[in-house]
């Protein structure tokens, strides 16, 4: 077993990532189970202690139960139905732009990621994969992947398992990775620390999360070009506005609340809040907004009253936080109505006051991710996901899946770009993937049966644009 | 074991009800499982062969597993959070208007019904209960109820079990029912046939379903007053428009489809279709409507193009039927896009062509209630609930739950009304519960924190209305 | 000059009609002016004192200024662009179903009515026409009509002019009407009183307004069959819900208010209120509702808080009344914010407290139909149309125009039906025009490019319907 | 009379501005008339030839008719009702931050600008004003202003009048301006050319339009600091998205079109297009979008099909262009339906093909700003504002008014900032007014009765923000 104490401590300095992972441990049951999940839940043996063989006779993988591969395949098939990534796979397959690429990946392992990995393989790459989060792996999907790819991941890994899996990905005989796809920087960091010689030969790193990218550039030790696929106005906007508009509906999945006529307060009217508010208003809820920023507050002329939480705390049926730290205080929770719902769609796991964990309040788990917090007088407040991010916790397809649907394409494009870039195009720095955005957007359009108009020569000239784009100024992507 | 062949044949003449029940048998897994359900799913012993005792030491019940009572209690607590019925319980509890009432009930057994039953008990009634559908019972809820009420129901009853449970309810020593609450008429019919002497002493029947009421009045043998709580403009409107607007969201629960930008055709622009269309449009779908009736078609000026299904069949991502028989033909399904979704929100189970069940099409169950139907060329169409009613099948809280939320109050009010009515007020006929609608609506208003305005004397006089209502003309309820 | 004192007194017993007309007199300037109106406004000569000749050389008409005919023709052309009535004209023109009909009409004279009248002529009828309201006539349109039809109407008639015009229509040598089209019953009443012998020979009366129909049937002296084209669920619904949804936008025309973020209270959540609320919410206003009826209040789960007016009177920016008498009291007006707007979309002219007409409040007319009512402390409340019906007063195309767009078709159909009905089909009674509704709706559908689906034989049989309709039960129309 | 040929030619190189002004000349009647306008329309005497005296006995102004001052005052009072600018006036009045400022202004002269000018005066400034557009002046408002401010402007100025008015503002004995407020750069340019010595002593220029700012900086001869109040993400967003959402409703004012069920195509899904689409969808229209940019096209998942114009040109009822040059071609116009509407909400005046001005097409003006273009076969297409910008032409309160409502505050703030800035803070360059945006937004919030939440110390620290803002990063304003 690997001892890597020093680094684990170092990681704890990256709060978001570690925070997310640690908190996840308290989840006793995930909602990401697929149809067959119950079959395996009884099996308590650690995957590391099992001997499993896939249909090809290989044992170079480690998943919960390879026999679930068929169920996982169906989940992947569902994901393929919607994936614009398939368009990319079809367009680029004959060119094999990733022929010769040896990619180690460390991401959430879901049906959507599986579509990505299998696309990378279809484009010519060899892949080895592990999970970036100890709880988010869909076991069946991992099993399905393991039939052809070296996957090391299961739901409910221990911290030690987590690093063991990463090491299995990287440290294998006769195979040296030349590309990294990372989400959070753990894989990158591990390779940098443990296998510096391998790391130096990497041609490029594609990194998903802000945390991961920060780590890279702050460390100042970046010796390979990296591409940040997360930071662009457009992607942020799509992820936040559009995805939240869809994923707030998970509130219904979880609590069966009827939206019509309910009084809801959304704390924060940024992109996430805007998405939530739009969906809730559309479904007949009466929505209030709290804001600290006058510009966002003014945008609430979309149709929402801007109030202070205290003004309406006694009336609201639902509080949704889309902001930051301790937006809902214990004092406010004390004044809420019996049966009201509190949940967090925001950026951090600390939006709802931690002081709900006190002896005088009783917690009763009524469903997966749903707790009744019971006051001494019998009042119940329904708390979702223990105050953690709702859209990461409470549904089969939360925000991050939709996000990944888009993300996976950026990741694939970034890998292709970095792998095929001529020497010198990218230095040892962190890059954005800006103009490719339009290409990704256009891949999506096929899914929507959308027909783009082409500029006439005259119009292009009038506008000073190339007929094939890019259509947006640079600053649009770099903001 | 009871043989009741003759009646079963007779029942098969009531297509909706029987059809619904028979089709239900093919459901291999329901989505109505609560948090603990997986624990019991392994248990293959028939409840009829088990010996169970509740906390009071009684064995006068038959449920899947009495040990699940605690989990069921939590579901009931969730339901109580929202139930306007609790208002009624509080208002009428001191009066005990059902003191002396002995009610046999045959309804769906869900958390919402449990709130009703426990309300009836709180108002003074004794109750014995059974399920009106062999598959809709929430086992944990039944267990929770069985701690204090004689309940005979579990999910997955056989036809024989179904009648055995009804008989257990009715045929018990030292207890004769004087009121019936029925949904579909099976209980009523059984009592009429098997226990005519008991039946004659019944003071009133409250019947939920249209089928059940038809049966009663058509038979012409109604010897007790009955009240139909289903047929009123208002209730229809609430159930259809408002509930469908909410329950169409189950489409997302089931398929994880993103609504934004999807092309959806809704077949039928009646109240159900209107509700679906409004919600889908609000969430960013592009919605088309098909209609046969010019008046409904004109109402689509709400914002929807009225098309013939054939015009757009090749483009749509989702078909939702809200009408009648064979609206979507096999020929049309042949022309749909790969990955498109087909589901049924309508009134019957025959809206989608049965010809999908042919050898050349492969069915692959990918989740509970979700099948991929695969054409020889690999095209997949996602069929929900095998074409049966989506809102009865695909969610924890489908339309019928919300409906029951309202319905249970009507049922309670109707029971109170019939039980307390002076001799002669009701004859041996089927009655509606019209004016009480306003009372029920006003009970609900508390839930919405809504404040009614009162007419001034002058205004009441001007309008020719009593200040306390009713505010609607008679025909409003009787339409 | 005609003396008809007795009847005028009698008419004053019909409050709505007379009230509307009398109040209209205080309008100093109408917004119904067309492009050219200013040219004629200087002309103070009474039309009765002018000698005018149309292009055909006839003087059998009396309008403000025949020279405005060209401008009026353009208004009619605009109206024709939208009129589904044109479909009827085209369909029925070859059949000339009104050949031989001699119709006297008394309606609002607007571009839309002009389309009706010219359609009647195209279908074979001879027409003479007058106005049912002393202020609603569009002078240019009347001029355009007068080129081919005997029209007697202008904006700003005196009471005496009003009856003189009616008499000119009826009392003409060598021409006896055999059909009446009336709106309000004034024409009918005049003929009944003054020309009883002509009246007896009338084959049918088509009456638009509720008032007019009441008059007929209450009088008990109806000696000819009459058809009420106003009272049907469908028409009410279209007029109220759909038209109000559009015409509330006139609030912007009149006051330039920005809807986004404004707090609006809509008094009354009937069909009119529902239409207003839907439009305002859609445009970003924050909408509250007041209601007396619990059922309507419950329907506000469409997305509106139900409040008492007093709760929010200090906060709202706009009050819209959609109800009845004195909904907004002087006391409440005293508490409104500076700059708030008050208007009336309801059924009567008395929804806003008359006590605004007191010496301590200053009225300042800032635009046509817009008064600032100024409190002693300088606070201004913006009152529209002096509290009268906004949609009758404040726009070029108010509700009643859209209504008439539909109405004119009903009127035409009713005239055709009555004129061609075999002896005995209609008695001396008031009839509705029920089933034709579907025909009218289908005429409209062409305008919307809507494509109806046809029932298959199998479906028709299943539903028990004729493939060509009617699709609605009788009670749908008769409610 | 002033000859200034050389400069006029130079101006013609600034296409937007000059184009706008020239095109305006063809407007025969504006819709910006206030209540009293008709009184003065007969008066053909040039204001320059009249002798007028205001109530103070001064003749230092030149307007159409000083007697209309009272009517103009009412328009200003209406504008004051809504103006957040009044908040600024109240807050800053005691400080007189503009004491000593001598401002020459050249802007649209409307009720909203009047509120600005009178605010500047209230804050201590002396003002002289002229119009930046020969047709946009509201004569009554100019008259009202002229009672206390030296205003030189009327509707329908000639080119020569235009420069004469500017000169009157600047060239007056005993008064030298020290601040400029300009919209389009004409005033600035004139001063720079004709009065270079005065110009050098100017302390700052506040410029509204992009054109004007370009002129300044491109010329490279900027010898005073200038502030561009137009270019910020936020302002663009408010002006475009929010204002267009409101001003598209003018389509109804102008054409009386019913939105429900109409098929509308919006060309361009930028901010302007998004605003139009949102409003139209909300009102029941069926909206299509055309786009050239895949990112914007993808955002149409808001609920709109992305099509090529040719695909639907035969079906649509309304075309709204929100883009650039020649989006709608003559060929497409040929294929439109009879009665369809074409209008322009975009950025330029050339979006609709100029080839409609041909002999074979007849133009018929049916209302102010509304032409029927008639094809040889009788087909009519309704063209608004001759294809020029709808929201500048077709309503009393078009986009630019709402825009100015916001703009005027920026202008006032920029004037205060520049006038009071310590020496050296601003160089001879063009500045933005970024962070003040939040201050302006917060002034607006009072209008909306919105209550901002304040950050706690802990939260501010967590977020790394000052509790009083700014809350947005710099790039947010500078994009």
From TrEMBL, chains A, B, C, D:
A GO CC annotation recorded here is: cytosol
Query: What is the UniProt remark on how the cofactor binds and its stoichiometry?
Result: Binds 1 NAD(+) per subunit.
Checking SMART domains in the record gives:
AdoHcyase, AdoHcyase_NAD
Domain S-adenosyl-L-homocysteine hydrolase NAD binding span(s) in chain numbering = 240-397
Per UniProt, the ranges with Low complexity bias are 24-39
- Name its co-factor(s): NAD(+)
**UniProt: substrate binding residues:** 110, 183, 208, 235, 239
Q: Which Pfam families match?
A: AdoHcyase, AdoHcyase_NAD
For the ligand (NAD(+)), the binding residues are: 270-275, 291, 391
What are its GO biological-process terms?
one-carbon metabolic process; S-adenosylmethionine cycle
Keyword field:
NAD, One-carbon metabolism
- The answer to whether keyword NAD applies is yes
Please list the residue ranges that the record marks as compositionally biased, kind Basic and acidic residues: 1-11
**Segments for region (Disordered):** 1-54
Under the heading InterPro entries, the entry gives: Adenosylhomocyst_ase-like_sf, Adenosylhomocysteinase-like, Ado_hCys_hydrolase_NAD-bd, NAD(P)-bd_dom_sf, S-Ado-L-homoCys_hydrolase_CS
Q: Which PANTHER family does the entry mention?
A: ADENOSYLHOMOCYSTEINASE, S-ADENOSYLHOMOCYSTEINE HYDROLASE-LIKE PROTEIN 1
Family stated for the protein in its record: Belongs to the adenosylhomocysteinase family.
Record-given protein name: S-adenosyl-L-homocysteine hydrolase NAD binding domain-containing protein
Organism listed in the record: Periophthalmus magnuspinnatus
């Amino acid at each position: 077993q690997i001892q890597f104490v020093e680094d684990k401590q170092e990681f704890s300095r990256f709060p978001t990532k570690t925070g997310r992972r640690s908190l996840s441990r308290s989840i006793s049951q995930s909602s990401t189970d697929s149809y067959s999940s119950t079959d395996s839940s009884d099996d308590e043996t650690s995957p590391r202690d099992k001997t499993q063989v896939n249909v090809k006779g290989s044992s170079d993988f480690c998943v919960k139960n390879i026999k679930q591969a068929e169920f996982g395949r169906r989940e992947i098939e569902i994901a393929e139905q919607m994936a614009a990534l398939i368009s990319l796979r079809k367009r680029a397959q004959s060119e094999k732009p990733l022929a010769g690429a040896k990619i180690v990946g460390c991401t959430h392992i879901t049906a959507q990621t599986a579509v990505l990995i299998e696309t990378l393989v279809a484009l010519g790459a060899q892949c080895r994969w592990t999970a970036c989060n100890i709880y988010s792996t869909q076991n069946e999907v991992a099993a399905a992947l393991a039939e052809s790819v070296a996957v090391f991941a299961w739901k409910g890994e221990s911290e030690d398992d987590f690093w063991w899996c990463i090491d299995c990905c990287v440290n294998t005989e006769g195979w040296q990775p030349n590309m990294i796809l990372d989400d959070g920087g753990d894989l990158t960091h591990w390779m940098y620390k443990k296998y510096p010689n391998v790391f130096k030969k990497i041609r490029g790193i594609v990194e998903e999360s802000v945390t991961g990218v920060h780590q890279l550039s702050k460390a100042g030790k970046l010796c390979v070009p990296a591409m940040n696929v997360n930071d662009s106005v457009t992607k942020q906007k799509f992820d936040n506005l559009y995805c939240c508009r869809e994923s707030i509906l998970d509130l219904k999945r979880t609590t069966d609340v009827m939206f019509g006529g309910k009084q809801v307060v959304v704390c924060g009217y940024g992109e996430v809040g805007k998405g939530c508010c739009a969906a809730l208003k559309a479904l007949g809820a009466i929505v209030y907004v709290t804001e600290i920023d006058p510009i966002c507050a003014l945008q609430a002329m979309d149709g929402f009253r801007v109030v202070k939480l205290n003004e309406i705390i006694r009336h609201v049926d639902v509080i949704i936080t889309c902001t930051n730290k301790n937006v809902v205080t214990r004092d406010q929770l004390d004044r809420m109505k019996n049966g009201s719902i509190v949940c967090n769609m925001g950026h951090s796991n600390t939006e709802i006051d931690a002081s709900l964990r006190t002896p005088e309040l009783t917690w009763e788990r009524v469903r997966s991710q749903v707790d009744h917090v019971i006051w001494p007088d019998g009042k119940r407040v329904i708390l979702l996901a223990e105050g953690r991010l709702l859209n990461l916790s409470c549904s089969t397809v939360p925000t991050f899946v939709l996000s990944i649907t888009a993300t996976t394409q950026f990741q694939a494009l970034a890998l292709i770009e970095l792998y095929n870039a001529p020497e010198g195009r990218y230095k040892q720095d962190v890059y954005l993937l800006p103009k490719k955005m339009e290409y990704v957007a256009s891949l999506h359009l096929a899914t929507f049966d959308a027909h783009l108009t082409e500029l006439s020569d005259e119009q292009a000239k009038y506008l000073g644009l190339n007929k094939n784009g890019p259509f947006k100024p640079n600053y649009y992507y770099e903001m």
